[in-house]
Write a structure and sequence with these properties.
552 residues; alpha+beta; Antithrombin, Chain I, domain 2; Alpha-1-antitrypsin, domain 1; 3 domains; ten-stranded mixed beta sheet; six-stranded mixed beta sheet; 11 helices
Length: 552
């Protein structure tokens, strides 16, 4: 194993619960002949149009709105990039939580510098138009607010739960910059937990797995089998999603049906459990993109699962469609949907997978993060080497160990002061002489809540600039941290519940030539989007729904 490895564990638990629909007026048994679509009739459901307000012109957009739009677009583009890069390696189903991955990478970005910082901003879609090196904190603030908004929205909707959790597990006594710790806590509500990788790696792995199990409601018990004893930092990001459909699928009508893995004209089929539904749903068909899209809203309509099927879909057609579609195309399809009467067959699925994202991210240009010689996480830790000396940095400790409590002193305007470091440990105050104004000003050390003069949101970016100014100094040393891998574990369950109620549920047959027939029995993609922010939470490309039976 390598020394000073960072392992990033990103976990998704979307658990979709389809509740029982029961109406005593319906007393006839449902039947699905193979040669026709016969669907149960059910009351129409109101659903707001998916189209939201048009994006603001940059002329009328605040910087905060601009950042939020870039974040949403960046997460959407990241979905497509990861999907394409991963599918070049496999023909299996691909399911992942883009926002969860982005949150884990953002924690790394918060502590990165140099080439690693540049590569991460590029893959997250933040490299243009932001002055990212000087204003990256705006991005972290925006992403943190977005996550809290999604959590808050879910919290007021009955039957929906979305929660995020991040943790930084640190080797005991390994120096982590106070700036990084406090910024991670303030921006992402991240936990910083001390563990002993070196002398007791098994116990450390148990602690990490227990944390993951707790944050994922017991759905994922073991994210790591073992942890190398030379691990210094492990970053974990967990996400739990549980929601009920706004228009529940019918109980008692799920049947075994064919799924055509190479298209409906092919004889290559598997048998899957198909759920049935009918009613008013958002739908759109586009002849230019040669695809149709159906929205399956969750309760409250705050989040929607969009199912996209290319015309004449099969494995090859879906791959080609995904290779050329853009994030703007996805927004266009979703925002163009109109409420239509739809008759739906959709596969019941349970998907569990562990994805190692190192080769995917490397293919997307994130290379230095995984290279011990190039990775630069100097804002996360000063490492165990010599400290960086500068007149603007107050560091009263010795010069042989990196100091995790590095403190920068800035004027009220955010400019670096030309200060002489006179530190009084008893009072925890540094006195700086501002030669511009010819005044002596006392500043509290960073971390003190009372009387602090430091503008907290500027500190990380200014620390980065300071380190870069000293990059040629003989005392400069990269902390030597790098990522061994990015592990993303997914558990997804799309099913109906309430088997006791299903035994008493009967529906009336309804046959019509009107409306839309949306039969998901060929390869398809789906994405779950938070409607207000237009942020993609989850992505999936499905070639063989699981579980299934191969026909012989």
């Amino acid at each position: 194993m390598y020394k000073n490895a960072i392992i990033i564990a990103s976990i998704l638990i979307p658990l979709t619960v389809c509740q029982t629909y029961n109406n005593d007026a319906f007393k006839r048994q449902i039947y699905f002949p193979d040669d026709a679509m016969v669907m149960p009739k059910r009351p129409s459901a109101n659903r707001f149009p998916a189209a939201a307000a048009a994006p603001l012109s940059s002329q009328y957009m605040s910087y905060e709105q601009f950042v939020n739009q870039l974040l949403s677009q960046g997460i959407g583009n990241l979905s497509l990039k990861i999907n394409k890069a991963y599918q070049d390696q496999t023909d299996d189903n691909v399911v992942f939580a883009t926002l969860n991955i982005a949150a884990a990478l953002a924690l790394v970005l918060l502590g990165s510098n140099g080439k690693t910082f540049q590569e991460l901003t590029t893959v997250l879609g933040l490299a243009t138009g932001l002055d990212i090196e000087n204003r990256s904190v705006k991005v972290h603030e925006g992403l943190g607010k977005m996550i809290r908004k999604i959590e808050t929205t879910a919290g007021v909707i009955i039957g929906q739960q979305v929660s995020f959790a991040d943790a930084v597990f640190v080797q005991n006594n390994y120096p982590i910059r106070r700036l990084y710790k406090e910024s991670a806590e303030a921006l992402y509500n991240s936990e910083v937990v001390n563990v002993d990788f070196q002398s007791n790696p098994d116990k450390a792995a148990q602690l990490i797995n227990a944390w993951v199990a707790d944050r994922t409601k017991g759905k994922i018990m073991d994210i790591v089998d073992d942890v190398p004893s030379d691990t210094k930092v492990l970053i974990a990001s967990a996400m739990y999603f549980k929601a009920e459909w706004e228009n529940p699928f019918m109980e008692g009508v799920t049947t075994r049906r064919n799924f055509y893995i190479d298209g409906r004209k092919s004889k290559a089929t598997i048998e899957v459990d198909m759920m049935a539904n009918a009613g008013e749903f958002p739908y759109f068909k586009d002849p230019n993109l040669k695809a149709e899209i159906l929205g399956l809203p969750y309760k409250g309509n705050a989040t929607v699962m969009y199912v996209v099927m290319p015309f004449n879909s099969n494995k090859r057609v879906l791959k080609e469609f995904e290779a050329h579609i853009t994030q703007k195309d996805l927004d266009y399809l979703a925002d163009s949907t109109q409420t239509s009467h739809c008759q739906i067959l959709f596969p019941k699925m349970k998907i569990e997978s562990t994805i190692h994202l190192k080769p995917v991210l490397t293919k997307l240009g994130v290379t230095s993060l995984f290279d011990p010689k190039q990775a630069n996480l100097g804002l996360l830790s000063p490492g165990m080497g010599p400290i960086i000396k500068n007149n603007a940095e107050i560091n009263p400790l010795g010069s042989f160990q990196g100091n995790p409590n590095d403190v920068l002193i800035f004027s009220r305007t955010g400019e670096t002061l030309n200060c002489s470091a006179i530190f009084d440990p008893a009072k925890n105050v540094s006195t700086c002489h501002d030669t511009v104004n010819n005044k002596t000003v006392a500043y509290k050390r960073f971390g003190e809540k009372v009387g602090r003069r430091i503008v907290k949101r500027d500190t990380v970016d200014m620390l980065r600039n300071l380190i870069n100014q000293q990059s040629t100094d003989n005392n400069y040393q990269n902390p030597g941290l790098y990522a061994e891998d990015v592990i993303h574990k997914v558990y997804m369950d799309i099913t109906e519940t309430g088997t006791e109620a299903a035994a008493a549920t009967f529906v009336t047959l309804y046959r019509t030539v009107r409306g839309v027939t949306f039969r998901v029995d060929v390869p398809f993609l789906f994405f779950i989007r938070h409607e207000e922010t237009k942020t993609i939470l989850f992505w999936g490309s499905i070639y063989k729904p699981t579980p299934n039976n191969v026909k012989v």
